[in-house]
Amino acid sequence: MSGRRRAPDVPADVTLIYEVQLLNVRNAPDPKRLSVSDCIRICKQKRERGNYHFQREDYQSAVKSYNLALDILNISSELNPSAQEAEELQEDGLKCLNNLAATQLKLDLHEEVIASSNAVLQLDPNNVKALFRKGKLLSEQGDYEEAMETLKRALKLEPSTKAIHAELSKLVKKKTDQTAPLKQKNNMCQNTGEKPVTFLPAPSKSGLDVPWKWFFGAVAVVIGSVVTSIVLAARG
């Protein structure tokens, strides 16, 4: 070897034109005829595709991919999976729902984020990601009582997470700013002899724990919100 480099076959900064020939067309398999193992495999593929779109900030495509994965999970509920398969389906479902919520958050679809987070918490009441997202958005919407309850649950599960501490500190400040005028008014009422006005906290709307067999009902609700997500995102 003389050490000299060969000139490249394709020069730099040139336009390449490709010709593509379609060799074969296959219809997608009928989802209702899939086995449970096929459902698990396809669900993982769709979820990973959603992750691919999310990393490239193509959030609308990510929502569609997670939606397809949830559709497959919904179909698998009719196939009587074994205990091991049911556990794997539930794990994949939790990942899809959490990823969907993260994507909806990027699209500023706050109501849809809460719906997806609630679906996660129906399956896994101690899911910290879902608790944090839900608590943060409830705080932004002014539902301070439920936001405080939700974030405290998250903090109890992960007491060293700085993001939860920071969000709780912001929430405490919001509540203080909200109640300060009321306290001032009550003090004025006491000075004038008037009866102060009291307000009862809003009733809690936290979801109830449900067994795995009810998972697909929650998925169906979320899929409905996903359609709304796609429409609203397209309008945006």
Automatic annotation (TrEMBL):
InterPro entries for the chain: FKBP4/5/8-like (IPR050754), TPR-like_helical_dom_sf (IPR011990), TPR_rpt (IPR019734)
Gene Ontology cellular component list: cytosol; endomembrane system; membrane; mitochondrial envelope
Organism domain of life: Eukaryota
One Pfam family hit: TPR_19
Sample GO molecular function, one term: protein folding chaperone
GO biological process terms on file: negative regulation of apoptotic process
Keyword Transmembrane listed: yes
Membrane spanning stretches: 214-234
Extent of the signal sequence: none
Ranges: TPR repeats: 128-161
Keywords of the record: Membrane, TPR repeat, Transmembrane, Transmembrane helix
Keyword Methyltransferase: no
Name of this chain's protein: Uncharacterized protein
Organism the protein comes from: Scyliorhinus torazame
Biological classification of the source: Eukaryota, Metazoa, Chordata, Craniata, Vertebrata
